[in-house]
Specification:
Elements: E1 5-9, H1 13-23, E2 39-40, E3 45-49, H2 52-62, E4 66-70, H3 78-87, E5 96-100, H4 105-114, E6 118-121, H5 126-194, H6 204-219, E7 225-234, H7 236-243, H8 245-261, E8 268-273, E9 276-284, H9 287-302, E10 305-307, E11 310-312, E12 315-322, H10 330-347, E13 351-354, H11 357-376, E14 382-391, E15 396-408, E16 412-414, H12 416-426, H13 429-450, E17 458-462, H14 465-469, H15 473-484, E18 491-496, H16 497-500, H17 504-515, E19 520-526, H18 533-536, E20 543-546, H19 548-552, H20 559-573, E21 577-580, H21 586-595, E22 599-600, H22 611-619
Parallel strand pairs: 1-3, 1-4, 4-5, 5-6, 12-13, 15-17, 17-18, 18-19, 19-20, 20-21, 21-22
Antiparallel strand pairs: 2-3, 7-9, 7-12, 8-9, 10-11, 14-15, 14-22, 15-16
Bound molecules: ligand C2E and magnesium ion (MG) (2 copies).
């Protein structure tokens, strides 16, 4: 630790020695010393100045911890020196003890007023001097320590501030980076929530939001019209099934791009479902503009889509609905565009249909029919009618086709042409067909018992595509036949031509199982579907049933006549028998006989009838003749 430095200011050199002596217990050297040469005691380092100015000048060099200042000096007197030193901020804190022979209260007051901290009166008393020096030095030391501590504290504070500033900016940078990342992630999450992952097109949610906004704007007198287009691809399942889902996915992505090309920036095309797309045209002037866009899209789809060396022709049906004030719910627009799309689909491939109110009524009608249909089986509203099938070469009854009828509690008879497609779409066809099948088998068994014949009667029953898909079909047929006490050879199952296309190998396998039970197979509505000669010859079928639309419009040498004649020839070639549907006139009967058609059914022989009517007209009294 530094030894305290005391500056003694006195014009009288002898006084130095006095003070020196008084301050030191073991003073060895009491000679006066020139200024600046300190005398080291064990306790203090003493410095001397002979006048006030010299003392002030020496402050920087000496760095005194205490000043003993004589009051009475020539030139600057002690009081003035004291005042000046105390006026200098860097020396303000150094305690000054005035050494004075003056001891009046006024003198002391002047000293204190000049800033002196204490005083010692002359002649200097040793104890007093030492006590005062000691006390002042202790105060100075404490002051220095405080200063040092404050300095250290300030340094620490500064360091802390620096550290904080640095860390703060690092933190700020990190926060900014993290915020940017979070924003990007949030945007991605928001994007994904509203877009289809495969095509990146807006999804159903975003579409409905956009339509809702458009509805609001129209309500707020935005007079621009808008339209919703519902697009459904034809036979897309075939692409997926034959070329795989990955290929199918790529096709969908290409189609998404294709559709975008036809739209304005304000329009929106969304992927609505598997192979369904919905377009919202935001700003059209009239219906013609929406139709034009639909036509452009249809024309574009006429071009084959080239992918992996394949040339794909993809059909599309478009339903168009024009927005107006009556639409308040986005879902209603989608519903109506969908209804119109179904209409377009029924008209054929690559067409559009604009929605109109009549379609809505029909759709409602269909909807109620659908819900009624769900209860019809339980409520036993179905009846099986039977239409005789005739050997037309000798007009003998060989059996019946079972045709279901629905006796609706309020609408009366509903045609199967109307409800069978609905039952197929809703899956209700499976239990319905099962019921028809069981009823027809029971009926045949009853008739066989009641009206035994030389040539046993046979029963034809219609099946749907969904029945064929059911794995337990053969098992169920076996069970019902057994229950009714019938053998397979009394049964013909009718499947339509279009049902065969689905999975021909599986169908052939199923038909072979039926064949093994001697059940006969009839290809119904032949000529209206997509049969390929390629697989027709592989089918274990027994009959081709010529669709009634050909028979009904037969005229010698017209196209229908040719078709009928070709089907009969083809049937012969394949070793199958032919059944003609819808024979209504003697003339048709005759032509069919001439062409070699073996079997037939139609109003000429009988309409489909209830069981008891069949009994009256065809079975009782050995009634073999049917005309
Ligand atoms: P389909 O199997 O081709 O049945 C022949 C249809 O032709 C019957 O219509 C029958 O009433 C009608 N028909 C028969 N002769 C004549 C005629 O001389 N002139 C005219 N104009 N029509 C005649 P229906 O009973 O209305 O049945 C329509 C279709 O509904 C059937 O066509 C069949 O595909 C389906 N269907 C009927 N019953 C069932 C069933 O139980 N299950 C299934 N899956 N489909 C059924
Ligand atoms: Mg049939
Ligand atoms: Mg038919």
């Amino acid at each position: 630790m530094k030894m305290p430095a005391i500056l003694i200011v006195d014009d009288e050199p002898d006084n130095f020695d006095v003070i020196e002596t008084l301050l030191s217990d073991h003073l060895t050297d009491s000679v006066s010393h020139p200024i600046g040469n300190p005398i080291n005691h064990q306790d203090y380092q003493l410095h001397y100045a002979f006048d006030g100015q010299k003392a002030i000048d020496a402050l920087d060099t000496i760095q005194p911890d205490l000043i003993l200042l004589d009051v009475m000096m020539p030139g600057l007197d002690g009081i003035e020196v004291c005042r000046r030193i105390k006026a200098m901020p860097e020396w303000q804190a150094v305690p000054i003890i005035m050494v004075t022979a003056l001891s009046t209260k006024a003198d002391l007051a002047r000293c204190l007023e000049a800033g002196a901290n204490d005083f010692v009166s002359k002649p200097v008393n040793r104890i007093e001097l030492r006590a005062r020096v000691h006390s002042m030095l202790r105060i100075k030391q404490q002051y220095d320590e405080l200063q040092a501590a404050a300095k250290q504290q300030a340094a620490l504070e500064a360091e802390k501030v620096l550290w904080l500033t640095q860390h703060n900016s690092e933190l700020e940078a990190k926060v900014a980076e993290r915020t940017a990342q979070l924003q990007a992630q949030t945007q991605l999450i928001q994007h994904n929530a509203l877009h289809d992952p495969l095509t990146d097109l807006p999804n159903r949610t975003l579409l409905l939001e956009q339509i809702a906004q458009k509805i609001d704007r129209v309500n707020d007198s935005d007079k621009k019209q808008y339209a919703v287009l519902f697009l459904d691809l034809a036979r897309f399942k075939v692409i997926n099934d034959s070329l795989g889902h990955i290929f199918g996915d790529r096709v969908l992505t290409i189609i998404a791009q294709k559709l975008k090309k036809h739209l304005q920036i304000t329009d929106l095309v969304s992927r609505f479902g598997g192979d369904e797309f919905v377009i919202l045209l935001e700003n059209i002037t009239d219906a013609a503009e929406a139709i034009q866009i639909a036509e452009n899209i249809l024309a574009d789809f006429q071009n084959p889509l080239l992918l992996n060396g394949y040339q794909l022709f993809i059909g599309v049906s478009i339903g168009i609905v024009l927005g107006n004030e009556s639409y308040q719910e986005p879902a209603d627009l989608i519903r109506d565009a969908d209804i119109a799309m179904y209409r377009a689909k029924r008209k054929g491939e690559n067409t559009y249909q604009v929605f109109d109110a009549a379609m809505h009524t029909q759709a409602l009608h269909r909807l109620t029919l659908e819900s009624d249909l769900r209860q019809a089986l339980e409520r036993q509203e179905f009846i099986v009618y039977y239409q005789p099938i005739i050997d037309i070469l000798n007009d003998r009854l060989i059996g019946f086709e079972a045709l279901v009828r629905w006796q609706h509690p309020t609408r009366g008879f509903v045609s199967p042409v109307e409800f069978v497609p609905i039952a197929e779409e809703t899956g209700l066809i499976v239990p319905l067909d099962q019921w028809v099948f069981q009823s027809a088998c029971q009926q045949l068994a009853t008739w066989k018992n009641q009206f035994p014949r030389e040539v046993p009667l046979k029963m034809s029953v219609n099946l749907s595509a969904q029945d064929l898909r059911k794995t337990s079909l053969v098992e169920e047929i076996d069970r019902v036949l057994k229950q009714a006490g019938l053998t397979g050879d009394s049964l013909t199952l009718e499947i339509t031509e279009s049902m065969l296309v689905e999975d021909i190998n599986k169908t052939i396998e199923l038909l072979n199982q039926l064949k093994a039970r001697k059940i006969q197979i009839s290809i119904d509505d032949f000529g209206t579907g997509y049969s390929s000669l390629n697989y027709l010859h592989r089918l274990p079928a027994d009959f081709l049933k010529i669709d009634r639309s050909f028979v009904g419009q037969m005229q010698p040498d017209n196209r229908n006549y040719q078709v009928v004649s070709t089907i009969i020839a083809l049937s012969n070639q394949l070793g199958l028998a032919t059944v003609a549907e819808g024979i209504e006139t003697q003339q048709q009967h005759q032509w069919l006989q001439q062409l070699g058609c073996e079997l037939g059914q139609g109003y000429l022989f009988s309409k489909p009838l209830a069981a008891h009517e069949i009994e009256i007209h065809f079975l009782q009294n050995g009634g073999l003749d049917c005309k």
